[in-house]
Amino acid sequence: MKRLLLLTALVTFATYSQADARIKVKGRGDKMNFDPESISVEFRPSFDLMTRKCVKCHTMERTVIAIQTGRAPITGQPFDKQAVKAYGIKMLRKPNSEMNKPEIRELVLLMNYLLEENKK
Ligand code: HEC
Q1: 0.90 exceeded by pTM
Q2: What are the average pLDDT values for consecutive 10-residue runs of the chain, which has 120 residues?
């Protein structure tokens, strides 16, 4: 009986989280971006930061594709948590990225959250 309850709870939970799973995407090409509506409120400020900082050298399309597909579009490398961290450090080292350590950390956390949401 206990098992059945647990199973029911799990199934219910899975269906619930399915309902708001996956971060939605709006627009195409250069205008492609995550739909802010589908991003949890606590991550909105980080998302604002991303839309200001990560469009300096390329559009958001690159980031969206990497997160949605789990593959980095330029190098074809898997884009997972480890890659996100490595990429953050790489950005930090680029002299003209205009991002500091706390900002990079915030954006890495945001990307981990986005990856996590897309797995649901
Ligand atoms: C200083 C310019 C610059 C800024 C700022 C920048 N990028 Fe990039 N980005 C690049 C360049 C150049 C590439 C091409 C490959 C490389 O050098 O890694 C790239 C590639 C990428 C890729 C594809 C990586 C691959 O291996 O295919 C992703 C994803 C990405 N950027 C996301 C971001 C995110 C997220 C931010 C904000 C945290 C950001 N970029 C900020 C210059 C920049």
Answers
A1: no
A2: 62 50 89 95 97 95 95 94 94 91 96 93
